[in-house]
Design a protein that fits this description.
- The chain is α+β, with helices and mostly antiparallel strands.
- It has three domains: 19-164, Lysozyme, CATH 1.10.530; 175-304, Alpha-Beta Complex (endopeptidase fold (from Nostoc punctiforme)), CATH 3.90.1720.10; 319-420, no CATH class.
- The chain is 25% helix and 13% strand.
- It is built from ten helices and 14 strands.
- The strands form four sheets. The chain has a five-stranded antiparallel β-sheet.
Length: 427
């Protein structure tokens, strides 16, 4: 499964090997120390080292920001505004800008306050007047809005995790359509993308419809190819016509919006979740398959469709016992019902009118009888007697004439011993 803002990072998870080349691409000199410190430190505090290093990436721009260079502050601790002075952990003349170990340990001490027992085993916070709390968090999203963290903080963290280790270290990516919708809904009312769009960075959501749909899927762990606009992205997919199910992307062509088209995430009820040009920036509109310019819908790759909310139709019954049939059970105690081709005939009548007006109740189960036509010819047939007529099975005739109601000129008789020479049709 992909990482979501509701991810529970408690419990040590070793650092994935893919972090080292990722960090080395940004900060080659410190990459090894950064990775080693996170892995070793998270083993001590009982925390997922992948979530911790991703948080560090968000806070420091993959360990390249000026605050990281000047103070090695890996979690923005004590920073409330751009002009807040740097906090340097365990300052000495030999390390005027702090060290990787002290900076990362400061973050990990804070994570014990948020998620574990508040033990702060590295002792970095108390000397500077921080820490000393135990919040008892169990999901990354509980950090959103705490202290200086914005409301999209956890989304940015899982966005980095899904970029660097999109398959959770080798497990197959399975993303539900509900996950995609839930991820997109986190942006409702947000004017700017902030850390949600890990490809294009921070920008207003208005007019960035493809970036929104891509990011909602990408932040769930989906590998999303890049296209210049919604029309191109739509034409690159095998779009399906008609109403879009929940979680699918709906695409609109240039006639809807020139020249880039539009895309959003279907809610499955005719509404589209996506970017808007009004002050809400992200929200719902009733844009669907009835909207001019609609191209069709498609799930992003590796998104599992929503199950059909309607219960499946029950399998057709092959045996019908008419309610309140006064002839059931028969004298021998057997249930009297209608089955096989006779039930098909009965159901065909029922599709247009009450079959009681044509057939009435079944008098008995099907049986063998000698049927004599008005020309005097006789054959053994399978029949079933009803109050208003008798159904006859004629296997030599194609549907629908294989089962018919009897003619007034036809006569029925009991089957004589088999040695009399009459032809037999069988049931």
């Amino acid at each position: 499964m992909a990482y979501l803002p509701t991810y529970d990072p408690r419990g040590y998870v070793p650092l994935d090997d893919r972090w080292l080349p990722c960090i080395r691409a940004y900060n080659p000199d410190e990459a090894q120390a950064i990775c080693d410190t996170y892995d070793e430190g998270c083993a001590i505090i009982g925390y997922d080292s992948n979530a911790a290093i991703a948080q560090g990436c968000v806070e420091t721009g993959y360990f390249t920001s000026n605050r990281w260079k000047e103070s090695h502050n890996a979690a923005g601790i004590g920073i409330y505004a751009d002009d807040t002075p740097d906090v340097i952990w365990l300052y000495t003349e030999d390390t005027p800008h702090g060290t990787v170990e002290d900076g990362v340990h400061g973050q990990l001490d804070l994570l014990t306050d948020y998620f574990t027992d508040g033990s702060e085993p590295f002792g970095t916070l108390a000397p500077l007047g921080f820490g000393g709390m135990e919040k008892g968090f169990s999901e990354l999203c509980q950090m959103d809005g705490v202290w200086a963290a914005d409301e999209g903080y956890s989304e940015a963290i899982v966005g980095v995790m899904n970029e660097v280790i999109p398959d959770n270290g080798g497990a197959p990516v399975t993303v539900s359509a509900d996950d995609v919708v839930a991820m997109g809904q986190t942006q409702i009312g947000h004017a700017y993308s902030n850390g949600f769009d890990t490809v294009n960075g921070t920008h207003q959501w208005a007019y960035w419809c493809l970036a929104f749909a891509d990011s909602a899927n990408r932040n769930c762990g989906v590998d999303v190819p890049l296209y210049p606009n919604a029309v191109t992205a739509g034409r690159a997919r095998d779009l399906q016509p008609g109403p879009a199910p929940k979680g699918a992307a709906c695409f609109f062509d240039e006639t809807f919006y020139y020249p880039d088209g539009h895309v959003g995430i279907s809610m499955g009820d005719g509404r589209l979740l996506g970017t808007l040009t009004n002050p809400s920036n992200v929200g719902y509109m009733y844009w669907n398959d009835q909207t001019p310019g609609y191209m069709g819908w498609a799930y992003y790759e590796n998104v599992e469709p929503m199950p059909d909310p309607r219960p499946p139709d029950p399998p057709p019954t092959n045996w019908l016992v008419q309610p309140d049939n006064p002839y059931s059970p028969d004298d021998a105690g057997n249930e009297v019902g209608v089955g096989g081709g006779f039930k098909r005939f009965y159901d065909g009548v029922a599709a247009g009118q009450d079959p009681m007006t044509v057939l009435g109740y079944a008098l008995a189960n099907e049986e063998q009888a000698i049927v004599t036509d008005d020309d005097g010819t006789s054959r053994q047939r399978t029949i079933q007697r009803f109050e208003r007529g008798t159904l006859i099975y004629q296997p030599e005739n194609a549907f629908p004439y294989d089962v018919v109601n009897n003619l007034n000129t036809q006569e029925f008789a009991a089957v004589p011993p088999a040695s009399d020479g009459h032809d037999e049709d069988g049931a």
